[in-house]
Amino acid sequence: MDYFSNIEDTIKNKEEITIYNAISGEVKRNDYYTDKIKKLAAKLYSKYFAIFFIKLDFLRIFYELFVFSFSLYQVYTNNYSIGTAIVLIGYSVMITGPISYLNSILLNIKNSINAIDFLRELDVEEEQGEFLEKGIENISFNKVNYSVDGREILKDLSFTINKGEKIALLGPSGKGKSTIVSLILKDIPLTNGQITINNIDLKGIAKEYLYAQIAVLSQTSRLFPGTVEENLCLGKKGSNKEELEEMLKKFKLPFQLQYRIDENSANISQGEKERILLARALLANKNFVILDEPLEGVDLQNKGEILSYLKNYLEDKTAIIITHREEVGAICNKVIKL
Questions:
Q1: Strands of 192-197's sheet, edge to edge?
Q2: Following DSSP, what letter does each residue of 321-336 receive, concatenated?
Q3: What span, in angstroms and rounded, lies between the C-alpha atoms of 190 and 194?
Q4: Would you say which domain of life the source belongs to (predicted)?
Q5: Per residue in 83-134, pLDDT tens?
Q6: The pTM is what?
Q7: Please, what is the angle between helix 23-44 and helix 47-76, to 10°?
Q8: Cβ contact 313:147 at 8 Å
C-alpha cells in the first residue's frame, strides 16, 4: 500500500516534481519503496513459504469438494433440503475465500515486481531543445490562438513582458488565463500564432530551461504527504531553517516545520494549503514568477499582509499574475483584461 501510494503521489504531482527539479528526490524515494517491496517479495517467494501456500491451496480445494459432495449426498438421502445444502456450500466458500485471496496477493506481488522491472528499463525519449545562455529577458505572445474541440479559448492574444515588469492577467473563469501558463511551459501546443523568449521561438527552447528559470504556482499545484519543511523545500538541496520559519510567520501559517501533512492535504484548510504552495514558489527564488490565483482561498484577515509581502518580494522580479481579483492585480504595473 505504501508503494502504490508513493507511485500515486508521484503521478499526481508530476508537474510540481518537474517544475521544482525534484526528479532525483523522487527517484530515491521510489527506489526506497521498490527495495522494500522486492525484499518482501523475496520472503514471500522463499521455498518454504511457497510450499506452505501450495499445500494450503490443495487443502482448500479438497475441503470445498468434500463439503460440496457431502451436501449433495445429504440432499440425495433426504437429510437436508436443497436450501440447507446451498447455505452450507456458501458458508464453506466464505471460510476458504481468504485462502484464495492470499494466493492472489502472491500473484499480484509477482506481477507488480515484473512491472517495476519493466518500467525501470524503459528508454524514455527526452524532448530536444535549446538552453539559452541568458535568463529570460522577455516573453512575447504574437497573435496566439488556442482552441479545444472547436471551442476557442484564446484569440489573437498579443502582449510582451520585459524583464522587471509585473503583468496582471485579469478576467473571469474560462477566459484562458491558466491556458497561458500551460502554453509558456510547453505543456500544450499552440493552435497558431507564436510565442518567443528572448526573441527565440518557444518551440526550439528546452523545457528544462523553462523550469530552471520560472517559478510557478498553478491551479493544479499540489502538496505531498510529508512534513511542511519537505513541501517547502521541494527540489532544493539543503535548507535554511531560519528562512523557512520566517516564511511560515509571514504567511500566517500555524505550523512547525516538522508538522506532517496527510494525503490530499486532509488535515489542513484550503487557505493554509494555498499559502504553503505560494511560500514554496517564492522560496524557489527565481527571477521569473508565474502565479495563478495566488491568494485564492486565503481569508480576508491574512490577505492584506500577504499581498503587501508579495508586492515587496516581486519588486526586483519579473512576474505574471493571473487573477480575477482587482486588488491582487493592483500590485502589478501592467494589466491585461481577457
A1: 151-162, 138-148, 192-197, 200-201
A2: EEES-HHHHTTSSEEE
A3: 8
A4: Bacteria
A5: 998 998 888 888 887 777 776 776 676 677 667 666 666 655 666 788 888 8
A6: 0.68
A7: 60
A8: no
